[in-house]
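check this one:
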Amino acid sequence: MSIAFDLPPAARTGQPVDAIDTPSLVVDLDVFARNISRMQTAAD
């Protein structure tokens, strides 16, 4: 059985943090990309 959820995003990129409903996951994309790069380097 499969259930699809079509929910609008809680926030948009660039939206002020104060305007985001909680709970929400907030990700710093620069830090995220740097961490992915470091993990890839360690895996190589």
In short: The two ends are 39 Å apart (CA to CA). The chain has one helix and no strands.
